[in-house]
Amino acid sequence: MATRFEDYQSKNRCLRMTRTPEGVLTATLHTDGGAPLHNGAAHTGFMHAFGDIAADDGNEVVILTGTGGYWIWKMDFSAVGDIKQPETWPQILTEARRTLYHLLDIGVPVVAVVPGPAHAHGEYALTADVVRAADTATFKDEQHLNIGVMPADGVQVLYAEAMGHQRFRAFELLQQTITAEEALRIGMVNEALHTRSGPRGFDQTIHGDLGFPFADLAADRHA
Fold first, then answer.
1. What is the mean pLDDT of residues 141-151?
2. What distance in Å separates the CA atoms of residue 75 and residue 119, rounded to the nearest whole number?
3. Is 123 a catalytic residue?
């Protein structure tokens, strides 16, 4: 049975999803309508949600973005327990990898809109065909070394591919922050957009300026 938008649109509490009649799906990361908090429920929820999006042939374009001026606000695994323990880490790692597999399996053009700090799972945005960042956006990996685990869930692949392996080593080991300006300069994002009109104006700029020949580009994502 084919996956239908109506079947998963409201199934996941960590993503707010809308879709236009033309098939442009917007998936907005959030926690209770506000800035996205990445916790155990979101970790599992993203895996399932992106799998549903990838399986829906009714999607023509997918836009991923955050809420409240954040891509993801911060990590909170307090309800999960110590993720370094043998009984917890394999599940976390498996879910993280499957989430990336599902994102990469989306067979239509994907646009990531990074409205602000992406200090957790910024690599989700890097799976997109086009990455558009607010000029207030920053990128940092605060989900691994600072809590005592190695980056092995795709961060070490996607960030290194986007910025270059040598730059990534310093970024990760020294816990550096990359601004939108630097991300644009090194080719990690495609655009750095002004946010002087506020988050709503920024969102309207993003959603009103795609201009893709959707049907023609769909096959290019996995070429």
1. 78
2. 9
3. yes
